[in-house]
Amino acid sequence: MAVVILYGSEGGTAELVADHLADVLGTYDDTSLYDMMEYDAGDLDPENFHVIVCSTYGEGELPTGAEPFFEGLDEDEPDLNGLRFALFGLGDKVYEDTYNRGGEILAEKLVSLGAVQVGEHGRHDGSSSIRPKDQAEEWAKIIGEEFLA
After folding, report:
1. Are 123 and 113 in contact (CB under 8 A)?
2. Contact 54/7 with Cβ under 8 angstroms?
3. First to last CA, the chain
4. Which of 15, 50, 77, 102 has the maximum number of C-beta atoms within 10 A of its C-beta?
5. 76-124 tens-digit pLDDT
């Protein structure tokens, strides 16, 4: 099973985290990394395991980098039955009502199309002293042990 890592970013943090996760998860078979700006929603394959890294922008919206992918899901409504994914979101708890909402929006859309979210929804708080890459690495190790081993 291949591991496909997709990221949607506004300021670049989600891309840095996704790149780090590609190194962490690179020990599992075939691991690839894609920017959601350049990934066609129709290419989602239930034979692969998907790891999604998504930031939150503005008032709880998807980042610009995730919009084309989300629009493709919304317009084409592909059948994602059998597809499994894990999601790591980036946000800031200062924005209480919209904290990590970008990742939630994406997860809700994937699930509505038949995909199954597995593992804990990782949520990094930009106001914390924990570096996003460090938290994502710990999260990915658990995901790898539980779903890829």
Report:
1. no
2. yes
3. 11
4. 102
5. 999 999 999 999 999 999 999 999 999 999 999 999 999 999 999 999 9
Residue 20, Cβ neighbours under 10 Å: how many? 19
Alpha-carbon radius of gyration of the chain: 14
Q: How many Cβ atoms are within 10 Å of 74's Cβ, its own excluded?
A: 12
pLDDT score, position 123: 97
Distance, in Å, from the CA atom of 76 to the CA atom of 15, rounded to the nearest integer, reads 25
The alpha carbon of residue 23 and the mean position of all alpha carbons in its chain are separated, in whole angstroms, by 16
* pLDDT tens-digit readout, 48-77: 999 999 999 998 999 999 999 999 999 999
Residue 69's contacts (CB-CB under 8 Å, 6 or more residues apart) are 6, 8, 36, 37, 39, 41
Which bin fits 30, alpha (ψ -120 to 50), beta or left (φ > 0)? beta
Distances (CA, A) of 116 to 43, 83, 96, 106, 109: 17, 6, 26, 12, 11
Length reported for the chain: 149
d(CA 43, CA 30) in angstroms, rounded, equals 16
d(CA 75, CA 53) in angstroms, rounded, equals 22
